[in-house]
Protein backbone atom coordinates (compact mmCIF):
# COMPACT_ATOMS: atom_id res chain seq x y z
CA UNK A 1 0.00 0.00 0.00
CA UNK A 2 1.07 3.57 -0.61
CA UNK A 3 0.26 6.48 1.66
CA UNK A 4 -0.24 9.69 -0.28
CA UNK A 5 -1.65 12.93 1.08
CA UNK A 6 -2.64 11.19 4.31
CA UNK A 7 -4.64 8.46 2.55
CA UNK A 8 -3.87 4.78 2.08
CA UNK A 9 -4.10 3.96 -1.63
CA UNK A 10 -3.36 0.93 -3.81
CA UNK A 11 -0.28 1.23 -6.03
CA UNK A 12 -1.20 0.99 -9.71
CA UNK A 13 2.00 -0.36 -11.31
CA UNK A 14 2.08 -3.42 -13.55
CA UNK A 15 4.19 -5.81 -11.49
CA UNK A 16 3.23 -7.68 -8.37
CA UNK A 17 5.83 -9.09 -5.98
CA UNK A 18 5.97 -11.42 -3.01
CA UNK A 19 7.42 -10.23 0.26
CA UNK A 20 9.28 -13.12 1.85
CA UNK A 21 10.52 -14.07 5.34
CA UNK A 22 14.22 -14.74 4.64
CA UNK A 23 14.47 -17.07 7.61
CA UNK A 24 11.95 -19.47 6.07
CA UNK A 25 11.51 -18.46 2.44
CA UNK A 26 7.74 -18.21 3.09
CA UNK A 27 5.63 -15.51 1.48
CA UNK A 28 4.34 -13.04 4.10
CA UNK A 29 2.71 -10.44 1.85
CA UNK A 30 1.99 -9.67 -1.78
CA UNK A 31 2.29 -6.10 -3.06
CA UNK A 32 2.09 -4.20 -6.31
CA UNK A 33 4.74 -1.71 -7.46
CA UNK A 34 3.87 1.96 -7.85
CA UNK A 35 3.43 3.49 -11.28
CA UNK A 36 4.94 6.77 -12.46
CA UNK A 37 1.47 8.25 -11.87
CA UNK A 38 1.52 7.16 -8.20
CA UNK A 39 4.95 8.72 -7.72
CA UNK A 40 3.83 11.96 -9.36
CA UNK A 41 0.76 12.08 -7.07
CA UNK A 42 2.94 11.58 -3.98
CA UNK A 43 5.41 14.29 -5.02
CA UNK A 44 2.59 16.67 -5.78
CA UNK A 45 1.03 16.03 -2.32
CA UNK A 46 4.41 16.70 -0.70
CA UNK A 47 4.83 19.89 -2.74
CA UNK A 48 1.38 21.14 -1.75
CA UNK A 49 2.10 20.47 1.94
CA UNK A 50 5.48 22.24 1.91
CA UNK A 51 4.46 25.87 2.50
CA UNK A 52 2.28 25.09 5.50
CA UNK A 53 4.75 22.69 7.08
CA UNK A 54 7.87 24.78 6.52
CA UNK A 55 6.21 27.86 8.04
CA UNK A 56 5.35 26.13 11.29
CA UNK A 57 7.71 26.90 14.13
CA UNK A 58 10.53 24.43 14.79
CA UNK A 59 8.99 23.91 18.23
CA UNK A 60 5.69 22.87 16.71
CA UNK A 61 7.34 20.38 14.33
CA UNK A 62 9.43 19.11 17.23
CA UNK A 63 6.34 18.48 19.35
CA UNK A 64 4.55 16.57 16.58
CA UNK A 65 7.58 14.41 15.81
CA UNK A 66 8.00 13.71 19.52
CA UNK A 67 4.45 12.40 19.57
CA UNK A 68 5.44 10.10 16.75
CA UNK A 69 8.29 8.69 18.88
CA UNK A 70 5.75 7.94 21.63
CA UNK A 71 3.41 6.34 19.11
CA UNK A 72 6.17 4.14 17.72
CA UNK A 73 7.13 3.06 21.21
CA UNK A 74 3.53 2.10 21.93
CA UNK A 75 3.58 -0.15 18.85
CA UNK A 76 6.88 -1.84 19.65
CA UNK A 77 5.57 -5.43 19.59
CA UNK A 78 3.96 -4.91 16.20
CA UNK A 79 7.17 -3.49 14.71
CA UNK A 80 9.25 -6.25 16.28
CA UNK A 81 7.17 -8.90 14.54
CA UNK A 82 7.07 -7.02 11.25
CA UNK A 83 10.79 -6.34 10.96
CA UNK A 84 11.97 -9.73 12.24
CA UNK A 85 9.70 -11.49 9.73
CA UNK A 86 10.50 -9.25 6.77
CA UNK A 87 14.24 -8.70 7.27
CA UNK A 88 15.27 -11.90 9.07
CA UNK A 89 16.82 -10.09 12.02
CA UNK A 90 17.22 -12.10 15.24
CA UNK A 91 14.60 -10.73 17.60
CA UNK A 92 17.05 -9.86 20.40
CA UNK A 93 19.17 -7.82 17.98
CA UNK A 94 16.19 -5.99 16.56
CA UNK A 95 14.94 -5.12 20.04
CA UNK A 96 18.13 -3.07 20.48
CA UNK A 97 17.80 -1.56 17.02
CA UNK A 98 14.22 -0.59 17.82
CA UNK A 99 15.51 1.43 20.78
CA UNK A 100 17.72 3.34 18.35
CA UNK A 101 14.70 3.94 16.10
CA UNK A 102 12.74 5.60 18.91
CA UNK A 103 15.80 7.51 20.13
CA UNK A 104 16.58 8.56 16.54
CA UNK A 105 13.17 10.23 16.33
CA UNK A 106 13.64 12.06 19.63
CA UNK A 107 17.10 13.22 18.55
CA UNK A 108 16.16 14.28 15.02
CA UNK A 109 12.90 15.95 16.07
CA UNK A 110 14.80 18.81 17.68
CA UNK A 111 17.04 19.49 14.68
CA UNK A 112 15.07 22.50 13.50
CA UNK A 113 15.69 24.18 16.86
CA UNK A 114 19.45 23.74 16.74
CA UNK A 115 20.56 24.84 13.30
CA UNK A 116 23.53 27.20 13.12
CA UNK A 117 24.86 29.80 10.68
CA UNK A 118 27.79 32.25 10.60
CA UNK A 119 27.38 35.35 12.78
CA UNK A 120 25.22 38.21 11.55
CA UNK A 121 27.44 41.29 11.25
CA UNK A 122 28.76 43.98 8.89
CA UNK A 123 31.23 42.01 6.77
CA UNK A 124 30.90 44.87 4.27
CA UNK A 125 30.74 48.48 5.38
CA UNK A 126 27.20 49.82 5.65
CA UNK A 127 25.56 46.46 5.04
CA UNK A 128 24.38 43.94 7.60
CA UNK A 129 24.74 40.28 6.65
CA UNK A 130 22.36 37.74 8.13
CA UNK A 131 22.08 34.08 7.29
CA UNK A 132 19.04 31.87 7.10
CA UNK A 133 18.96 28.09 6.99
CA UNK A 134 15.93 27.15 4.95
CA UNK A 135 14.38 23.78 4.11
CA UNK A 136 14.93 22.72 0.52
CA UNK A 137 11.46 21.45 -0.41
CA UNK A 138 10.40 17.90 -1.25
CA UNK A 139 12.93 15.24 -0.26
CA UNK A 140 12.99 12.07 -2.37
CA UNK A 141 14.26 9.40 0.04
CA UNK A 142 15.31 5.90 -1.00
CA UNK A 143 16.28 3.24 1.54
CA UNK A 144 17.87 -0.24 1.48
CA UNK A 145 16.73 -3.52 3.04
CA UNK A 146 19.34 -4.03 5.77
CA UNK A 147 17.87 -1.55 8.33
CA UNK A 148 14.51 -0.62 6.82
CA UNK A 149 12.93 1.15 9.80
CA UNK A 150 16.14 2.67 11.18
CA UNK A 151 17.17 4.03 7.78
CA UNK A 152 13.72 5.43 7.10
CA UNK A 153 13.78 7.25 10.44
CA UNK A 154 17.32 8.55 9.84
CA UNK A 155 16.02 10.33 6.75
CA UNK A 156 12.42 11.21 7.61
CA UNK A 157 12.85 12.84 11.00
CA UNK A 158 15.68 15.35 10.42
CA UNK A 159 14.33 16.24 6.97
CA UNK A 160 10.86 16.99 8.38
CA UNK A 161 12.18 18.62 11.56
CA UNK A 162 13.93 21.33 9.56
CA UNK A 163 10.81 21.97 7.48
CA UNK A 164 10.95 19.76 4.37
CA UNK A 165 8.26 17.38 3.20
CA UNK A 166 9.05 13.92 1.83
CA UNK A 167 8.25 11.02 -0.43
CA UNK A 168 10.05 7.88 0.70
CA UNK A 169 10.54 4.70 -1.30
CA UNK A 170 11.67 1.71 0.79
CA UNK A 171 13.46 -1.29 -0.67
CA UNK A 172 11.18 -3.52 -2.71
CA UNK A 173 12.30 -6.43 -0.49
CA UNK A 174 11.37 -4.83 2.84
CA UNK A 175 8.60 -2.23 2.52
CA UNK A 176 6.37 -3.37 5.40
CA UNK A 177 7.77 -1.49 8.41
CA UNK A 178 8.21 1.77 6.46
CA UNK A 179 4.63 1.73 5.21
CA UNK A 180 3.32 1.05 8.72
CA UNK A 181 5.56 3.78 10.15
CA UNK A 182 4.35 6.34 7.60
CA UNK A 183 0.80 5.31 8.42
CA UNK A 184 1.45 6.01 12.13
CA UNK A 185 3.17 9.29 11.27
CA UNK A 186 0.09 10.39 9.40
CA UNK A 187 -1.87 10.14 12.65
CA UNK A 188 0.13 13.11 13.94
CA UNK A 189 1.35 14.99 10.84
CA UNK A 190 -0.69 17.11 8.43
CA UNK A 191 -1.59 15.27 5.19
CA UNK A 192 1.05 15.34 2.45
CA UNK A 193 4.01 16.05 4.74
CA UNK A 194 5.16 12.41 4.63
CA UNK A 195 4.24 10.05 1.79
CA UNK A 196 5.41 6.56 0.90
CA UNK A 197 5.45 4.81 -2.47
CA UNK A 198 6.49 1.18 -2.76
CA UNK A 199 8.19 -0.45 -5.71
CA UNK A 200 11.51 -1.32 -7.26
CA UNK A 201 14.53 0.88 -7.92
CA UNK A 202 14.66 1.23 -11.66
CA UNK A 203 10.91 1.86 -11.98
CA UNK A 204 9.47 3.55 -8.88
CA UNK A 205 12.80 4.79 -7.48
CA UNK A 206 13.93 6.28 -10.77
CA UNK A 207 10.55 8.00 -11.23
CA UNK A 208 11.06 9.65 -7.85
CA UNK A 209 14.64 10.81 -8.40
CA UNK A 210 13.89 12.36 -11.81
CA UNK A 211 10.71 14.18 -10.72
CA UNK A 212 11.46 17.90 -11.21
CA UNK A 213 9.53 18.87 -8.06
CA UNK A 214 11.93 16.86 -5.86
CA UNK A 215 14.44 19.30 -4.39
CA UNK A 216 16.93 16.89 -2.81
CA UNK A 217 17.53 13.15 -3.02
CA UNK A 218 18.70 11.19 0.00
CA UNK A 219 19.81 7.69 -0.98
CA UNK A 220 21.20 4.79 0.98
CA UNK A 221 22.13 1.67 -0.93
CA UNK A 222 24.70 0.05 -3.17
CA UNK A 223 27.36 1.81 -5.23
CA UNK A 224 25.64 0.80 -8.48
CA UNK A 225 22.24 2.08 -7.30
CA UNK A 226 23.93 5.24 -6.01
CA UNK A 227 25.57 5.91 -9.36
CA UNK A 228 22.20 5.78 -11.13
CA UNK A 229 20.57 8.01 -8.52
CA UNK A 230 23.47 10.49 -8.44
CA UNK A 231 23.33 10.75 -12.24
CA UNK A 232 19.60 11.38 -12.20
CA UNK A 233 19.99 14.03 -9.47
CA UNK A 234 22.84 15.67 -11.40
CA UNK A 235 20.76 15.89 -14.56
CA UNK A 236 18.08 17.72 -12.59
CA UNK A 237 20.76 19.80 -10.80
CA UNK A 238 19.41 18.55 -7.49
CA UNK A 239 21.42 18.06 -4.35
CA UNK A 240 22.04 14.41 -3.48
CA UNK A 241 23.15 12.69 -0.29
CA UNK A 242 24.71 9.33 -1.04
CA UNK A 243 25.24 6.75 1.71
CA UNK A 244 26.72 3.81 -0.17
CA UNK A 245 28.57 0.57 0.45
CA UNK A 246 31.64 -0.16 2.54
CA UNK A 247 34.30 -2.81 3.04
CA UNK A 248 35.74 -1.86 6.42
CA UNK A 249 39.28 -2.81 7.38
CA UNK A 250 40.20 -3.50 11.01
CA UNK A 251 43.95 -3.14 11.63
CA UNK A 252 45.17 -5.09 14.67
CA UNK A 253 48.72 -4.46 15.92
CA UNK A 254 50.77 -6.74 18.16
CA UNK A 255 50.49 -4.22 21.02
CA UNK A 256 46.67 -4.39 21.00
CA UNK A 257 44.54 -6.31 23.47
CA UNK A 258 44.31 -9.19 20.99
CA UNK A 259 41.58 -11.32 22.69
CA UNK A 260 39.37 -8.24 23.10
CA UNK A 261 39.95 -7.23 19.47
CA UNK A 262 39.08 -10.74 18.26
CA UNK A 263 35.90 -10.80 20.32
CA UNK A 264 34.63 -7.37 19.19
CA UNK A 265 35.65 -7.88 15.58
CA UNK A 266 33.86 -11.24 15.41
CA UNK A 267 30.72 -9.54 16.69
CA UNK A 268 30.97 -6.51 14.42
CA UNK A 269 31.86 -8.62 11.37
CA UNK A 270 28.85 -10.88 11.84
CA UNK A 271 26.41 -8.19 12.97
CA UNK A 272 23.19 -8.31 10.94
CA UNK A 273 24.64 -11.42 9.24
CA UNK A 274 27.41 -9.19 7.85
CA UNK A 275 24.81 -7.16 5.91
CA UNK A 276 26.13 -4.00 7.47
CA UNK A 277 27.93 -1.32 5.50
CA UNK A 278 30.44 -0.83 8.36
CA UNK A 279 30.94 -4.51 9.26
CA UNK A 280 34.56 -5.38 10.09
CA UNK A 281 34.85 -7.68 7.09
CA UNK A 282 38.58 -7.22 6.31
CA UNK A 283 40.73 -8.18 9.28
CA UNK A 284 44.36 -7.03 8.91
CA UNK A 285 46.48 -8.61 11.61
CA UNK A 286 50.14 -8.08 12.47
CA UNK A 287 51.94 -11.28 11.46
CA UNK A 288 53.37 -11.82 14.97
CA UNK A 289 49.89 -12.16 16.56
CA UNK A 290 48.05 -13.75 13.64
CA UNK A 291 47.77 -17.24 15.21
CA UNK A 292 46.71 -15.90 18.61
CA UNK A 293 44.11 -13.64 16.94
CA UNK A 294 42.73 -16.38 14.68
CA UNK A 295 42.40 -18.82 17.55
CA UNK A 296 40.43 -16.29 19.60
CA UNK A 297 38.34 -15.29 16.57
CA UNK A 298 37.36 -18.89 15.79
CA UNK A 299 36.44 -19.47 19.44
CA UNK A 300 34.12 -16.44 19.33
CA UNK A 301 32.58 -17.57 16.07
CA UNK A 302 32.08 -21.07 17.46
CA UNK A 303 29.74 -19.56 20.05
CA UNK A 304 27.51 -17.89 17.43
CA UNK A 305 24.00 -19.29 17.39
CA UNK A 306 22.36 -19.51 13.99
CA UNK A 307 18.64 -20.29 14.16
CA UNK A 308 15.04 -19.16 14.12
CA UNK A 309 14.86 -15.38 14.11
CA UNK A 310 12.05 -15.43 16.70
CA UNK A 311 14.22 -17.42 19.13
CA UNK A 312 15.68 -15.05 21.76
CA UNK A 313 18.94 -17.04 21.81
CA UNK A 314 19.65 -16.67 18.08
CA UNK A 315 22.57 -14.40 17.26
CA UNK A 316 22.95 -14.99 13.51
CA UNK A 317 20.06 -14.63 11.07
CA UNK A 318 19.79 -15.33 7.33
CA UNK A 319 20.80 -13.25 4.35
CA UNK A 320 17.97 -11.19 2.92
CA UNK A 321 17.27 -13.23 -0.22
CA UNK A 322 18.23 -16.22 -2.32
CA UNK A 323 19.99 -13.74 -4.63
CA UNK A 324 22.20 -12.40 -1.83
CA UNK A 325 22.93 -15.93 -0.61
CA UNK A 326 23.92 -17.03 -4.13
CA UNK A 327 26.09 -13.93 -4.47
CA UNK A 328 27.94 -14.69 -1.21
CA UNK A 329 28.41 -18.36 -2.07
CA UNK A 330 29.69 -17.24 -5.48
CA UNK A 331 32.57 -15.38 -3.79
CA UNK A 332 33.44 -18.56 -1.87
CA UNK A 333 33.18 -20.77 -4.98
CA UNK A 334 35.59 -18.49 -6.84
CA UNK A 335 38.25 -18.26 -4.10
CA UNK A 336 41.80 -18.58 -5.40
CA UNK A 337 43.65 -21.87 -4.80
CA UNK A 338 45.81 -20.18 -2.13
CA UNK A 339 42.75 -19.50 0.06
CA UNK A 340 41.84 -21.54 3.11
CA UNK A 341 38.40 -21.57 4.71
CA UNK A 342 39.00 -21.76 8.47
CA UNK A 343 35.34 -22.21 9.42
CA UNK A 344 31.94 -22.25 7.74
CA UNK A 345 31.96 -21.88 3.97
CA UNK A 346 28.54 -23.42 3.25
CA UNK A 347 24.84 -22.71 3.31
CA UNK A 348 23.35 -23.81 6.60
CA UNK A 349 21.37 -27.02 6.45
CA UNK A 350 17.93 -25.47 7.06
CA UNK A 351 15.22 -23.49 5.23
CA UNK A 352 15.63 -19.82 4.41
CA UNK A 353 18.79 -18.09 3.24
CA UNK A 354 21.32 -18.86 5.98
CA UNK A 355 25.07 -18.97 5.45
CA UNK A 356 27.39 -20.42 8.10
CA UNK A 357 29.71 -17.81 9.64
CA UNK A 358 32.86 -18.05 7.58
CA UNK A 359 36.52 -17.05 7.96
CA UNK A 360 38.84 -17.08 4.95
CA UNK A 361 42.60 -16.60 4.92
CA UNK A 362 45.45 -17.07 2.41
CA UNK A 363 44.21 -14.22 0.22
CA UNK A 364 45.96 -11.64 -1.95
CA UNK A 365 45.07 -7.96 -1.81
CA UNK A 366 43.69 -7.95 -5.37
CA UNK A 367 41.39 -10.93 -4.82
CA UNK A 368 37.74 -10.06 -5.49
CA UNK A 369 36.61 -11.06 -2.00
CA UNK A 370 38.99 -8.40 -0.60
CA UNK A 371 38.19 -5.69 -3.12
CA UNK A 372 34.37 -5.98 -3.04
CA UNK A 373 31.71 -5.51 -0.42
CA UNK A 374 30.49 -9.08 0.15
CA UNK A 375 27.64 -8.25 2.57
CA UNK A 376 27.51 -11.66 4.24
CA UNK A 377 28.83 -13.33 7.44
CA UNK A 378 32.24 -13.78 5.84
CA UNK A 379 35.42 -12.38 7.43
CA UNK A 380 38.78 -12.37 5.68
CA UNK A 381 42.11 -12.44 7.56
CA UNK A 382 45.26 -10.98 6.02
CA UNK A 383 48.58 -10.23 7.69
CA UNK A 384 50.98 -7.28 7.54
CA UNK A 385 54.51 -6.71 8.77
CA UNK A 386 54.68 -2.95 9.46
CA UNK A 387 52.59 0.24 9.74
CA UNK A 388 53.07 1.26 6.12
CA UNK A 389 51.91 -2.07 4.79
CA UNK A 390 48.91 -2.04 7.15
CA UNK A 391 47.88 1.41 5.90
CA UNK A 392 48.31 0.46 2.24
CA UNK A 393 46.13 -2.62 2.67
CA UNK A 394 43.54 -0.75 4.74
CA UNK A 395 43.21 2.08 2.21
CA UNK A 396 43.49 -0.20 -0.81
CA UNK A 397 39.88 -0.54 -1.93
CA UNK A 398 37.50 1.90 -3.63
CA UNK A 399 35.43 2.21 -0.43
CA UNK A 400 35.92 4.63 2.44
CA UNK A 401 33.02 4.38 4.85
CA UNK A 402 34.66 3.15 8.06
CA UNK A 403 37.77 1.52 9.53
CA UNK A 404 39.24 0.61 12.88
CA UNK A 405 42.73 0.48 14.36
CA UNK A 406 43.69 -1.58 17.40
CA UNK A 407 46.86 -0.70 19.33
CA UNK A 408 47.95 0.53 22.75
CA UNK A 409 50.34 3.04 21.14
CA UNK A 410 48.52 6.39 21.05
CA UNK A 411 50.99 7.93 18.60
CA UNK A 412 50.28 5.12 16.17
CA UNK A 413 46.51 5.26 16.60
CA UNK A 414 46.42 9.00 16.08
CA UNK A 415 48.53 8.64 12.89
CA UNK A 416 46.10 6.02 11.64
CA UNK A 417 43.12 8.19 12.59
CA UNK A 418 44.66 10.84 10.33
CA UNK A 419 45.74 8.57 7.46
CA UNK A 420 42.90 6.08 7.13
CA UNK A 421 40.70 7.06 4.20
CA UNK A 422 37.33 6.55 5.83
CA UNK A 423 34.56 8.81 7.09
CA UNK A 424 34.40 6.99 10.43
CA UNK A 425 37.42 5.64 12.31
CA UNK A 426 37.23 3.70 15.55
CA UNK A 427 40.23 3.24 17.84
CA UNK A 428 40.16 -0.01 19.83
CA UNK A 429 36.49 -0.35 18.91
CA UNK A 430 34.42 -1.20 15.86
CA UNK A 431 30.76 -0.56 15.01
CA UNK A 432 29.95 1.41 18.15
CA UNK A 433 27.16 3.37 16.58
CA UNK A 434 23.98 5.25 17.39
CA UNK A 435 21.67 7.96 16.04
CA UNK A 436 24.09 10.76 17.09
CA UNK A 437 26.90 9.32 14.96
CA UNK A 438 27.30 11.32 11.78
CA UNK A 439 28.28 9.16 8.78
CA UNK A 440 30.18 10.59 5.84
CA UNK A 441 31.40 8.26 3.11
CA UNK A 442 34.72 8.79 1.35
CA UNK A 443 35.46 7.51 -2.16
CA UNK A 444 32.91 5.06 -3.54
CA UNK A 445 31.12 5.03 -0.18
CA UNK A 446 29.36 8.23 -1.18
CA UNK A 447 29.07 11.84 -0.08
CA UNK A 448 26.93 13.91 2.22
CA UNK A 449 26.36 13.39 5.91
CA UNK A 450 23.64 11.38 7.61
CA UNK A 451 22.69 11.37 11.31
CA UNK A 452 23.00 13.93 14.07
CA UNK A 453 22.75 17.68 13.64
CA UNK A 454 25.28 17.68 10.80
CA UNK A 455 23.04 15.24 8.96
CA UNK A 456 19.97 17.41 9.53
CA UNK A 457 21.86 20.43 8.19
CA UNK A 458 22.23 18.61 4.84
CA UNK A 459 18.46 18.97 4.43
CA UNK A 460 18.75 22.79 4.50
CA UNK A 461 20.16 25.45 2.20
CA UNK A 462 21.85 28.63 3.27
CA UNK A 463 20.50 32.03 2.32
CA UNK A 464 22.59 35.17 2.84
CA UNK A 465 20.50 38.33 3.35
CA UNK A 466 22.39 41.67 3.04
CA UNK A 467 20.57 44.74 4.36
CA UNK A 468 21.77 48.26 3.65
CA UNK A 469 22.02 50.49 6.72
CA UNK A 470 21.01 53.55 4.69
P1 LIG B 1 20.39 -1.18 -3.67
O1 LIG B 1 21.21 -0.10 -4.26
O2 LIG B 1 20.11 -2.39 -4.48
O3 LIG B 1 18.95 -0.60 -3.29
C1 LIG B 1 18.81 0.45 -2.36
C2 LIG B 1 17.55 1.20 -2.68
O4 LIG B 1 17.74 1.87 -3.92
C3 LIG B 1 16.32 0.32 -2.89
O5 LIG B 1 15.19 0.99 -2.39
C4 LIG B 1 16.25 0.20 -4.40
O6 LIG B 1 14.95 -0.08 -4.87
C5 LIG B 1 16.71 1.57 -4.82
N1 LIG B 1 17.30 1.67 -6.17
C6 LIG B 1 18.12 0.79 -6.78
N2 LIG B 1 18.45 1.24 -8.01
C7 LIG B 1 17.82 2.43 -8.16
C8 LIG B 1 17.75 3.39 -9.21
N3 LIG B 1 18.37 3.19 -10.38
N4 LIG B 1 17.03 4.51 -9.02
C9 LIG B 1 16.39 4.71 -7.86
N5 LIG B 1 16.39 3.84 -6.84
C10 LIG B 1 17.10 2.71 -6.98
O7 LIG B 1 21.01 -1.54 -2.26
P2 LIG B 1 20.51 -2.66 -1.26
O8 LIG B 1 21.03 -3.95 -1.79
O9 LIG B 1 19.06 -2.51 -0.97
O10 LIG B 1 21.26 -2.26 0.10
C11 LIG B 1 22.49 -2.71 0.44
C12 LIG B 1 23.54 -1.65 0.14
O11 LIG B 1 23.27 -0.49 0.94
C13 LIG B 1 24.92 -2.09 0.54
O12 LIG B 1 25.83 -1.74 -0.47
C14 LIG B 1 25.20 -1.30 1.82
O13 LIG B 1 26.55 -1.10 2.06
C15 LIG B 1 24.48 -0.03 1.54
N6 LIG B 1 24.22 0.68 2.80
C16 LIG B 1 24.93 1.83 3.08
C17 LIG B 1 24.73 2.52 4.28
C18 LIG B 1 25.50 3.77 4.61
O14 LIG B 1 25.15 4.46 5.56
N7 LIG B 1 26.52 4.14 3.85
C19 LIG B 1 23.79 2.04 5.20
C20 LIG B 1 23.09 0.88 4.89
C21 LIG B 1 23.30 0.22 3.68
What is the compact description of this entry?
The chain has helices spanning 36-54, 58-74, 76-87, 91-109, 148-161, 176-188, 201-209, 223-235, 258-270, 290-302, 322-333, 368-371, 387-394, 410-419, 452-457, and strands at residues 2-4, 7-9, 16-21, 26-32, 121-124, 127-135, 138-142, 165-169, 194-196, 214-220, 239-243, 249-252, 282-286, 340-343, 358-361, 378-384, 399-400, 402-406, 424-427, 439-440, 442-443, 446-447, 449-450, 460-468.
Describe it.
Strand 10, helix 8 and strand 11 form a beta-alpha-beta unit. The longest helix is centred in the N-terminal third of the chain and has 19 residues. The chain folds into two domains: 267 residues, Aldehyde Dehydrogenase, Chain A, domain 1, CATH 3.40.605; 188 residues, Aldehyde Dehydrogenase, Chain A, domain 2 (3-Layer(aba) Sandwich), CATH 3.40.309. The chain contains 15 helices and 24 strands. It is globular, with a radius of gyration of 23 Å. The strands form seven sheets. It has a seven-stranded mixed sheet, with helices on both faces. Strands 9-8-7-10-11-22 form a six-stranded mixed sheet, with helices on both faces. It is α/β, with parallel strands linked by helices. Nicotinamide-adenine-dinucleotide binds next to helix 7 and helix 8.
User: Which shape, going by the Cα principal axes?
Assistant: globular
Compute the separation of the termini in Å: 58 Å
Q: What's the number of extended β-strand segments?
A: 24
Helix content: 25-40%
Low-confidence stretches: none
**Oligomerization state of this entry?**
single chain
> Helical segment tally?
15
Structural class: alpha/beta
CATH topology of the largest domain: Aldehyde Dehydrogenase, Chain A, domain 1
- The averaged pLDDT comes out at 97
CATH superfamily of the largest domain: Aldehyde Dehydrogenase, Chain A, domain 1
- Largest sheet, spatial ordering of strands: 14-15-16-13-12-18-19
Radius of gyration: 23 Å
Amino acid sequence: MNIIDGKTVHPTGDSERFIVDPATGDEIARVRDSSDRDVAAAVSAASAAFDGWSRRTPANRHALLHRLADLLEQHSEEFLKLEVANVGKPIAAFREEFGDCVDGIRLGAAAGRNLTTPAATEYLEGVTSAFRREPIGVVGAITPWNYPLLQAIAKIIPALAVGNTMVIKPSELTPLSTVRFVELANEVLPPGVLNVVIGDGTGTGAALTRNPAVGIVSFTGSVVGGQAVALSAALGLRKAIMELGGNAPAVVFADADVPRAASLLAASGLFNAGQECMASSRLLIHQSVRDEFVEALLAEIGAVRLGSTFDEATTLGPLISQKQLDRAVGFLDRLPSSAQILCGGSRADRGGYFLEPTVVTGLGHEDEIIQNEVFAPILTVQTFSDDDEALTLANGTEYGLSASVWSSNSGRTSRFARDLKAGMVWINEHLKFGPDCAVNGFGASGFGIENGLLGATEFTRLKHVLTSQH
